[in-house]
Design a protein that fits this description.
The structure holds 2 protein chains of 2 kinds. Chain A has 12 helices and 9 strands. By secondary structure, chain A is an alpha/beta fold. Chain A is globular and about 50 Å long. Chain A starts with a helix and ends with a helix. Classes of the chains: A alpha/beta, B alpha/beta. The interface between A and B is large, with 44 and 36 residues.
Chain lengths: 272, 402
C-alpha cells in the first residue's frame, strides 16, 4: 500500500531534493485564518503539511507551540473542526500529504476507531502521536496501519542502536528525527550531531528521515537537507503567526502572508 | 468483572492495572523509563538498599509514626473508635518524605546528580529539597504560579534548603502544569537528571515505585493496630489528590476483605461546580504518562480542577486507584472545601492537632460516617500532613488578617 506520503518522498527523490514539512496548529489563531494559511502552504513551498491537533497539556512542546494550541482552543477548535479543516484543505489539493500531529488523549476520547475512519475519510495520510512510544503500539499504531494511515514515529538522540529496531518496527511513511534533547522550538540543533545521527539511523531503516525541533532558518534547513530526506519547521511558523496578531491576539490581514513568506524563504534553503 | 485472587499483584509487565497505567511518554524519555524500571527492580532485590532506606526512615524521617487514638474526636462523634495515623509528625511534616527518601537513594544508586520534582501544596517539593540538601544534590522544583502564591511558606522553605523553585506559568498554573514543566525539563536533561515524582501517578514504574515506598504507612498501621487492639481495623479513610498517602495506607490491606477502604476526593465548591474529584466527576483518559480517570471536556481537553487544598488540586488520580474503583475494592467519595474547613477547625479544637487541608477532607468524611457506626468499629484515618502551611489560606477564608 502506497500513501500520498510514500509517493511524495519517491517523487522528491527523483527530483534529488529533500522535503519541506511544515507544522501549523489547526485552528490557530482561528479556523478561517488557519484554513487560509494551510491552503497557501503548498504554493509557498511546503511538500508535506502537519496539522497540529491542539491539546491543553502538550508535554513535548515549547512555549511557542503551547501558546498556539491555547489560541486555537480559545477560538473554539476541537477534533471535529480539525478534521473539517483537513477536509476543506483536501477539497482543493488532492496531492499534498497531510499528517495529523498531537497527543493521544483527544483521540482516545473521540474514540480510536471512529477517529481512524474519519481521519481517513477527510483525506489525512499519517499520524504523529507524541505520547505513544512503541511500547503502546496496540493502542493506535497497529489500528492506524490497518486503516491505511502511516504511523510516523519520532526517533530521538536517546534512540540508540539497541532501541532503534523497536522504534522502527511499526513505523511507516517517514521517520521524524528529533534533532535536540528537549522540547519543540527551544534549542538550535547541533548540525554535526544531526548528520551523524541521521547516518546512524539509516542503518536501521530504509524509510525517509525528516529532521525537526528547533529549525528556524533557511540556512539551517539548507544544511540539514544535505543529509536528511526532509526538514520539519514548526515553532518558527507558529511564532510568525503570534507576531502577526493584533493587540487582542486576533488575526490580521498580515497573518497568512507572514507564514507564507517564511515558508517560501525556508523552502529556498531546502531546495538550494 | 471477576474478583482477582489478590488485589496486590499489579501492575503487569507493561505497567498496567487493568486498563490503567502504562507508559504514555515521548520517545526521548522511553529509554530513561526503561532504565529506571530496571534500576528499581535491582534495588528492590538488594537487601542493602532496603536496609539503608529503613535506617534513614527511622533516624532521619522519624518512623514509625504513631497510631494515635483520637479520643475526644471519637467522643464528639459518638460512634466508631477513631485512630489517626500520624504521618504529619514525619520530618518535613507530611507523608511525602517516605517516597522521596526511597527515590533519592535510588537516584544516588543510579549516579544521578540533578533532581527535579513537581509540587502542588509544596510538601513534596519541601521533602525533595530536604533530601537533596541532605545528600548534596542539585534540586529544581517546578511549582504552579498560582500555588506559589497560596503556599508562600513552603516556597521559602524550599529556597532555604537550597532548591531552585521554578514557576510553571503555562495552562492553569497549578500542579498539572508543574508536572508538564518537569517532564519538559527531563526531556531536555536526560543524561544527569532524576525525576522524583511525588505521587502514585506518571508513567510506569512510578505508580508502583511510589506505592511501594509509601506502603510503610499501611505496614506500620497493621502492626500497630494488632498490638493495640489485637485485630485489624474495620475501615481506612484517606484523602486523595494523586493518591499516594491513600495508596500507602491501603495497599497492605487490599486483600483483607473485611477491611472497608474509603478514598476521599476534593469536591471543591461542589461536584456540580468546580472540583478536583477525578473519579467521582471524571472519566478515563491519558495524561502525564498514564491512563486513568481525568477531569476533561468532551474534546479530551484537560479541565482545571479546584480545591481549597493545593495538594488535592490535580485533574487526575493514580492509575491503581482507578482500577480499585472499577473493581469496587475501594469506595471513592468526596468532601467539599466547606466540609474540609469545618473538619480542620474541629480537629484543632478537639485534638490539639492542626491538620493539613488534605487530610481535613478525609476527616470530613470520618465526621459523616463515624456517628452511624458502632463503638467497636475501628477506623483509621491517615493524618498525612500538618496544617502549618495552610494557616494563611484558612485565615484568609475566615476573614482573619495575619
Amino acid at each position: 500500500m502506497s500513501t500520498r506520503i510514500d509517493q511524495r518522498f519517491a517523487a522528491l527523490k527523483q527530483e534529488g531534493r529533500a522535503a519541506l514539512v511544515t507544522f501549523i496548529t489547526a485552528g490557530d489563531p482561528d479556523y478561517e485564518t488557519s484554513l487560509k494559511i494551510i491552503q497557501g502552504l503548498p504554493k509557498a513551498g511546503a511538500d508535506i503539511i502537519e496539522f497540529g491537533m491542539p491539546f491543553t497539556d502538550p508535554m513535548a512542546d515549547g512555549p511557542a507551540i503551547q501558546a498556539g494550541g491555547l489560541r486555537a482552543l480559545a477560538s473554539g477548535q476541537n477534533m471535529k473542526k480539525t478534521l473539517k479543516l483537513v477536509k476543506a484543505f483536501r477539497a482543493g489539493d488532492k496531492e499534498t500529504p497531510v499528517v495529523l500531529m498531537g497527543y493521544y488523549n483527544p483521540i482516545y476520547v473521540y474514540g480510536v476507531d471512529k477517529f481512524l475512519i474519519d481521519a481517513k475519510k477527510v483525506g489525512a495520510d499519517g499520524l504523529i502521536i507524541v505520547d505513544l512510544p512503541p511500547e503502546e503500539d496496540d493502542e493506535l499504531c497497529l489500528p492506524a496501519m490497518a486503516a491505511g494511515l502511516n504511523f510516523i514515529r519520532l526517533a530521538t538522540p536517546t534512540t540508540d542502536d539497541q532501541r532503534a529496531p523497536a522504534v522502527f518496527k511499526n513505523t511507516s511513511g517517514f521517520v521524524y528525527y528529533v534533532s535536540v534533547l528537549g522540547i519543540t522550538g527551544t534549542k538550535a540543533p547541533d548540525l554535526k550531531s544531526v548528520k551523524a545521527n541521521v547516518n546512524r539511523l539509516r542503518k536501521h531503516t530504509s524509510l525517509p528521515i525528516s529532521v525537526g525541533f528547533g529549525v528556524k532558518s533557511a540556512e539551517q534547513a539548507r544544511t540539514i537537507a544535505k543529509d536528511a530526506d526532509g526538514v520539519v519547521v514548526g515553532s518558527a511558523l507558529v511564532s510568525a503567526i503570534a507576531n502577526s496578531l493584533d493587540k487582542k491576539g486576533k488575526a490580521t490581514a498580515k497573518t497568512p502572508k507572514a507564514v507564507h513568506t517564511l515558508v517560501a524563504e525556508i523552502a529556498k534553503g531546502v531546495r538550494s | 468483572m471477576t474478583t482477582p485472587n489478590s488485589y496486590r499483584t499489579g501492575p503487569d509487565e507493561k505497567g498496567l492495572f487493568g486498563i490503567y497505567g502504562g507508559r504514555f511518554v515521548a520517545e526521548t524519555l522511553m529509554p530513561l523509563i526503561l532504565q529506571l524500571e530496571q534500576a528499581y527492580k535491582d534495588a528492590k532485590a538488594d537487601p542493602s538498599f532496603q536496609a539503608e532506606l529503613d535506617d534513614f526512615l527511622e533516624h532521619y524521617v522519624g518512623r514509625p509514626s504513631p497510631l494515635y487514638f483520637a479520643e475526644r474526636m471519637t467522643e464528639h462523634l459518638g460512634g466508631a473508635k477513631i485512630y489517626f495515623k500520624r504521618d504529619e509528625l514525619n520530618h518535613t511534616g507530611a507523608h511525602k518524605i517516605n517516597n522521596v527518601m526511597g527515590q533519592i537513594l535510588l537516584a544516588r544508586r543510579m549516579g544521578k546528580k540533578r533532581i527535579i520534582a513537581e509540587t502542588g501544596a509544596g510538601q513534596h517539593g519541601v521533602a525533595t529539597a530536604t533530601a537533596c540538601a541532605r545528600f548534596g544534590l542539585e534540586c529544581i522544583i517546578y511549582m504552579g504560579e498560582v500555588d506559589i502564591a497560596r503556599q508562600m511558606p513552603n516556597v521559602f522553605r524550599m529556597k532555604l534548603l537550597g532548591a531552585t523553585v521554578v514557576p510553571a506559568k503555562s495552562g492553569s498554573r497549578t500542579l498539572k502544569d508543574a508536572l508538564n514543566e518537569a517532564l519538559r525539563d527531563w526531556v531536555a536533561n536526560v543524561e544527569d537528571t532524576f525525576y522524583c515524582i511525588g505521587t502514585v501517578a506518571g508513567p510506569h514504574p512510578y505508580p508502583e515505585m511510589v506505592r511501594d515506598f509509601q506502603s510503610v504507612i499501611g505496614k506500620e498501621t497493621r502492626e500497630q493496630m494488632m498490638k493495640r487492639e489485637g485485630r485489624l481495623p474495620d475501615s481506612l479513610v484517606a484523602a486523595i489528590g494523586g493518591g499516594s498517602n491513600a495508596m500507602g495506607l491501603f495497599h497492605p490491606f487490599l486483600d483483607d476483605k473485611d477491611v472497608k477502604i474509603i478514598g476521599v476526593e476534593a469536591a471543591g465548591h461542589g461536584l456540580k461546580k468546580k472540583h478536583a474529584a477525578s473519579i467521582t466527576g471524571g472519566r478515563p483518559g491519558i495524561l502525564h504518562g498514564n491512563r486513568t480517570y481525568l477531569l476533561m471536556d468532551d474534546d479530551g481537553q484537560i479541565t482545571e480542577g479546584h480545591s481549597i487544598s493545593a495538594g488535592l488540586d490535580y485533574p487526575g488520580i493514580g492509575p491503581e486507584h482507578a482500577w480499585l474503583h472499577d473493581m469496587k475494592r475501594v469506595e471513592y467519595v468526596s468532601a467539599t472545601d466547606k466540609e474540609a474547613l469545618e473538619a480542620f477547625q474541629l480537629c484543632c479544637k478537639l485534638e490539639g492537632i492542626i491538620p493539613a487541608l488534605e487530610p481535613s477532607h478525609a476527616l470530613a468524611h470520618v465526621m459523616k460516617i463515624a456517628p452511624k457506626l458502632p463503638k467497636e468499629h475501628l477506623m483509621v484515618m491517615n493524618m498525612c500532613g500538618r496544617g502549618d502551611k495552610d494557616i494563611f489560606t484558612v485565615a484568609d477564608i475566615l476573614g482573619v488578617k495575619l
